[in-house]
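the two lines:
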Amino acid sequence: MPKIILIGASHKTAPVELREKLSFSQEQIETALQFLKQYPGIREGLVFSTCNRLEFIYMPESGALEDKDGIDAVMRFISELKALPVSEFKSALYIHKGDDAVRHLFCVAASLDSMVVGEPQILGQVKKAYKTAVSAGTTGVLLNRLMHKAFSVAKRVRKQTGIGDNAVSISYAAIELAHKIFADLATKSVMLIGAGEMAELAVEHLMAHQVKKIVVTNRTFKNALELARKFNGQAVQYEERESALADVDIIISSTGATDYVLTRDQVKGIMKKRQNKTLFFIDIAVPRDIDPRINKLSNAYVYDIDDLKNIVETNISQREQETIKAQRFVEEALLAFRRWLDDLSVVPTIKAINGKMTDIVNLECEKTLAGLPHLSTADANAIRRMTRAIASRAIHDPILFLRNTGNHRDDSLYLNVARQLFNLDIPDHNY
Amino acid sequence: MNIPFILLQCATFFYLISTAGYFCYLFHQKNRIQQTALGAVGIGAVVHLFAIVLQSAALGGLPIYTLGQSLSMAGLSLAAMFIYTQYRFHLKILGVYATAMISVLMLAAILFPEVTQAPDKIYKGIFFFGHIILIFTGESMLALACGAGILYLLQEQGIKGKSPGFFFKRLPSLDFLDAVSYTCITTGFALLTFGLVTGFIYARSVWGSFWRWDVKEVFSLGAWLVYAALLHLRLYSGWRGRNSAVMSVIGFIILIFTFLGVNFFLGGHHQGFTQ
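prediction for all of em together
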């Protein structure tokens, strides 16, 4: 049975300061893959790093490398590359072996282990890490199979559970609301009131949906100009904000003002001017900038930070229920992988080849004999013996070869080829 | 054997399947279910059309002499208009409303006892035919506008109340629902207008005057005025969104009353259609 070892640290085990220090750049990942490739006794390996996690996965040559030695070597490598003493991060590392390692990898790929469970980026990141490992030449039969299984379980979780359905961040929730209010954001304009960091963040999200125009206003006009330049937008004087409402659809407000920046009467007046076209106010300021009574006006919607937080919280609790279903998919995939792995050893493969040949020979032989009724029983038996002998002679050399895959050779590679040549694997399940 | 009646039952069966499909789609949101359900409406409508063609051939005119026949006619025109709006807007969830309404109409149509009535000679001619077709398709469009309006109100309630619930994910954006409802109203209103005009011309050719203060005529004009007001307010006072949705529901309630209630409670020369 080939071994699988996974060493890693994530937001669950390491504080953010440490994760920042441990995070690998793309070049560092490539260096790490070269290290795994050259380390004696390691057959296949993959390194995966995001801002929230670092994972080393490798498969040691059977019997060639003690678990402890390999793990120590990886830790030493991290320590040297990152110029960090081992003692500083050792306690934050988790080490999984065998099934646990596979399960962990599946959970990571399916976004079950993410800080925001269900966030969709992680699968792309895992795929990228796999690609890097493939081009570095550190993948083989086992990792290929393992990673593809991980991708398919991640896809299944995405498709068949509601885990990625609900917005679980404030800005995402606000954008989802905007999508349910306006048919096409690309034809809508956004006005920022206040040039704070939060506003910038929200606009960056909106920019991804390509809004038509961005208008920025701020008490200090200079800051508004700066931000407008950054987003390729237009700056207006703070005093003009009321009349500017006539031409925008979404308002994001984040000023430090103690009073309402926009009152109900101001908006009511402007609503007439804009033919009652919908206005959506996103108020992320504390204390609030937008008069909550505006929400009572027809075709105006006001969401403050607490409303958005409430939506996010309901979504998170729904997501947790879907996680249980997702975990079942992971277990199923683990079982399927395990079965494949168990079959990928010498004895079951030889047995399967033998069985397949015997089946073919028996079938063909009986078919022929059925058309030759004039043969005596003894003759028929002789023919049966002969065909079986041909079969066993024909596969004798391949079997001998499989039995004697030397230590220096990658037996799982040959076993996999043999299984494919003879088409021994049951077709993979639909996930 | 009454072949048209058997065909009507077949059509009803398909409509019921489709209703079940759309309700399934409401909960599970699987596209395949929705496509099957839409297909079932399509098959139902074709069978239904065939039945009505056979009935027309037998009667020598459109089958709208009894309440059952009128309801069946309404069902077919609603199905046809629904398929048309699906083709135009892909507002899949509207199917829940439309197919449920078609099914109710059809169940009522086949459950009402068939009264054999001698076809009246006056119910003939191009204007009568035009009047019937335009009125039924126009009212169907307005029924769909009411459906889109109801969806709008559901979605709006969730967003305004800050508790996006069951419908939030399942319904499209408010803007889109408003646009669908508006388009249905303008189309329906145009058809209804032409329907009323052909009705007046027909009335003059049969009874010698355009307008005879028939109760149904009065209510039809009332409904027409409601929609005219709605369109006017939308264009000139920006009545969109919630107000527009509420008006589309009110207008349709008046239409239903015009279609059924007048005959049941008030009488008039349109009486014959719903006996």
